[in-house]
Amino acid sequence: MRILIVNKFLHPNGGSETYIFKLGRQLQDMGHEVQYFGMEHEGRIVGNRAECYTSDMDFHTGGLKKFLYPFRIIYSREAAQKLRRVLDDFKPDAVHLNNFNFQLTPSVIYAIRKWDRKRGKKTAVIYTAHDSQWVCPNHLMLIPATGERCFRCEGARFGNCVKNRCIHNSRIKSILAAAEARLYHVLKTYRQVDAVVCPSRFMESRLATDVILEDRLKTIYNFLDKDSPGETVKKDYVLYFGRYSEEKGVRTLLAACKALPEIPFVFAGNGPLEDEICHPNIRKIGFLRGKELSKVVSEARFSIFPSECYENCPFTVMESQSYGTPVIAAAIGGVPELVQNGVTGELFEPGNVEELTDKISNLWGDPSLCEKYAAACRSVSFDSVETYCNKLLEIYRGVLNG
Q: Rounded to 10 degrees, what is the CA torsion of 179, 212, 137, 217?
């Protein structure tokens, strides 16, 4: 099977990029032909035979090009035209869409269906919902200015994005994002996508609030492709690994750390709150990956996942459990689908410093309970990337044969 993976970034940038790279490699290992379409970038590591990519767009930098962005984030002629060249050259059986709104735009969906009509043959078009972009223009279900969690835009009430300046706290950017969401809702554009893969039941429930989507949603939890840390022994520290940012609950965790000076914490990661992580009982070890990270995770007594935004299916929670490390996690989004409260870890109310502090103190002071949770974690299994790809291939074939 020939599979074209579409994502705005084709360089290492975040979770969705990790996902597409591992997905593509596994599909190739299984004998399928895989190419990629997205933006050109100096760090691009995958591509297509036609060497066609859109020009790079960075909304956080200035310059003359930025003045043209409002005309390109709703519908990109460049993306449609260049994708068409890739389609003509590669002739994929399936196109797997990932993050494409704003930079590539839904113009790519129209380009695929126009190509189908010309050749008189159907292409399977699949979308993985890495976030809630299709029902929430800022994709976080969060009002950035206040940190309030929010479902106000559901039901196509996209004016709330403008009211709360949800895109970079800018009225103009929020108007454009709301206009994009409204336009494609009215046009029923996303009905042209055959199936939507949701990494959690939570995400499926949020997208199901749009009647255009509700009959094509399917939950498939993320795969876990982990590195073996070798022989490890638990050590005396509590671990946080991930992004140092407010929506990830780092300030809440820092308050708990300050209240527990007798407990050593290790922070692995980076982010905008880097300078605030300076308590005497915290050791920062920077951003890690691969075997270095797996060793640190597997040796921790337990880890903390304090996120205060609606998470989907966080790899950090899955990785922690897979290495036999219990998790104290915020009960938010898809997280309760991963952490069994009182079995593989414990859940707490997002943002509740007192509850988090008590949970950490109690678990640290009860090594037997910690080991009980760790044993339960070792019995938890997640899909391998191969198993996950077989599930996707079943969806692709079902569309083509249906």
A: -160
Residue type, 380: V
Mind listing the pLDDT tens digit for each residue in 211-241?
999 999 999 999 998 777 777 899 999 999 9
- Cβ neighbours for 251, distance < 8 A, ≥ 6 positions apart: 273, 276
pTM (predicted TM-score): 0.90
Tell me the C-alpha distance between 310 and 312, whole Å.
7
Read off the tokens for 400. Answer: 């083509």
**Amino acid occupying residue 198:** C
Are the C-beta atoms of residues 128 and 98 closer than 8 Å to each other?
A: yes
Nearest CA-CA partner of 75 in 101, 53, 95, 57: 101
For 129-159, how does the pLDDT look when each residue is reduced to its tens digit (9 = 90+)?
Answer: 999 999 999 998 999 888 899 999 999 999 9
The superfamily in CATH containing domain 2-128+188-223+384-401 is: Glycogen Phosphorylase B; (3.40.50.2000)
Which residue type occupies 107? S
Whole-angstrom distance, CA of residue 376 vs CA of residue 168 = 42
Neighbours of 69 (CB within 10 A): 15
Q: What is the DSSP string of 17-48?
A: HHHHHHHHHHHHHTT-EEEEE-B--TT-----
- Work out the angle between the directed axes of helices 250-259 and 353-364 (0-180°, nearest 10): 50
> Roughly how many angstroms between the first and final C-alpha of the chain, as a whole number?
16
240 phi and psi angles, rounded to 5 deg: -120, 130
Distance (Å, whole) CA 374 – CA 363: 12
**Domain limits, the chain:** 2-128+188-223+384-401, 238-378
